[in-house]
Amino acid sequence: MWIWISRVLRWTIGLIAVVIAIGLFLYLSENRAAPSQSEDARALQVVRAVRVEPQPVAMRWSGYGTARALEASDVAAEIAGRVIERPEGLEAGVSVHKGDLLAKLDPRDYQSRALSARKQADSFDAQLSALEIEEARLGEQADLLAEELAVAERELDRAKRTLDAGAGNASAVDTRLQSLKALARSRAAILTQLEVIPSRRAQLRSALEAARADQGLAEDNLARTQVVAPFDGVVQSIGIQVGEWARAGDTIARIVDLSVIEVPLRLPQSAVGRVALGDSVDLTAEGPLSLAWAGSIGRIAPESDAATRSATIFVEVRQRPESDGRTLLRPGQFVMGRVVSSEIADSLVLPRRSVDAGRVLVARPWREGDPALPDGARTPMVVREAEVETAQFIEAEFPSIDPAETQWVVVRRGGGPRGIEGGSIVLTSNLDTLRPGDLVDVRLEAGGAPDPERDDSETGIAANTDADAKPEDRP
């Protein structure tokens, strides 16, 4: 009995305590004082921004390539022969000049062939000279026979007239006639010899030309026994020793001209229409010396590579081989090239830190219908989002936009309803916390303040329903 009474009493006391606690909580909730909102809590967030305007920009592109000598040659033996001489000190790395001896082959066989060919040619030349004399003499004989024929014809006529007058005899006429015929046969033989003179001359001239050609080849081969440098350069390698047999085509030495180096660079296809012959190119190579060279575009390949969407330009670097060898650009060196277009175009540039994955935060003036403004805002504006297409990244200075900024993004103009144009206010601070639709108090980096009366058309930011939504309406 007492156990049940004790339990009921405890349950009753607990229930009364719970009811009292709930009542006290409700009383305090209804009668608590509303906290006062400080001015700092209502103040707008101050953000930094820049007003973007078109700036004169020289487009730049980067590419990689391997240097090569514009003029390099594997100097080979043009004839076969045994090497009898190689200049002392001729080794890899030695500078040579055009015409310097690299190796000398045994010339004795080629001297004999050249002498024989020269004598053969001289023989045909002498025969031609004799033929000219023979032709002149035959012509003289033909002329004399012609005169004798004329005399014999006159004598035959006189003999015939005498016979007709009854004072002569027939034997005298026959004698004169036989003499005339003999002279005619002799002249005909002379004329026949004269007629074959042109064909004989042609044959001799042809033989002489062939002999002269053989003589020229023999003399050229004799000259080829001395293998010389074809141009000024540096010996890359020497491939033969004195006493060795060199066959025609065997490499004697490799010569490289370091005065003009060519570097093929691959650039985006978009660069082809913007670069031109003569545009400057800065080449750099990684290494402890941080070497750099200045070049220019010497050639542009006519076709682009469809697979890589790139085009090839050829950069020429002119240098003095006799200068400090440590600073020379050498064939086979891998370099990076930065091409600067000679064409200057007005382009929109944005601080690089303001662009994130093709998007930037911009600001437009506050207007009726936007969230209520707290007191004290100097240049209240509404955050919006715009899309940009990056053309390239550059390092430059544009004090009229931001005096302290050096890293910029060049963007393509236009770009649809969410694009960006000249005059837009681009935010550069607090980018991690801002969202489209937020109210901010804007400070321009280059001085001054945004024009609060400037509308969207002036800033180049097209209308966007999502960006205009009030903070409480955004998800």
How would you briefly describe this protein structure?
The protein is α+β, with helices and mostly antiparallel strands and 475 residues long. The protein has helices at residues 2-31, 39-42, 108-164, 170-223, 456-459, 465-468, and strands at 45-51, 55-66, 68-76, 81-85, 95-96, 101-105, 226-228, 233-238, 245-246, 251-268, 280-284, 292-305, 310-318, 334-351, 359-365, 380-387, 390-395, 407-411, 425-427, 439-444. It folds into 4 domains: 46-56 and 347-473, no CATH class; 63-68 and 258-344, Elongation Factor Tu (Ef-tu), domain 3 (Beta Barrel), CATH 2.40.30; 71-107 and 231-246, no CATH class; 109-223, Methane Monooxygenase Hydroxylase, Chain G, domain 1 (Up-down Bundle).
Characteristic terms for this protein:
5-stranded mixed beta barrel; 11-stranded antiparallel beta sheet; 475 residues; Elongation Factor Tu (Ef-tu), domain 3; single chain; 6 helices; 32% strand; alpha+beta; 4 domains
Poorly predicted regions: 34-41, 453-475
Helix content: 25-40%
Overall number of structural domains: 4
Strand content: 25-35%
What value does the Rg take, in angstroms?
A: 53 Å
Could you give the distance between the termini? 64 Å
Order of helices and strands: HHEEEEEEHHEEEEEEEEEEEEEEHH
Which structural class do you get from the secondary structure elements? alpha+beta
Q: What is the global morphology?
A: elongated
Please give the largest β-sheet: 11 strands, antiparallel
By DSSP, the count of extended strands is: 20
Number of helices: 6
Mean pLDDT over all positions: 82
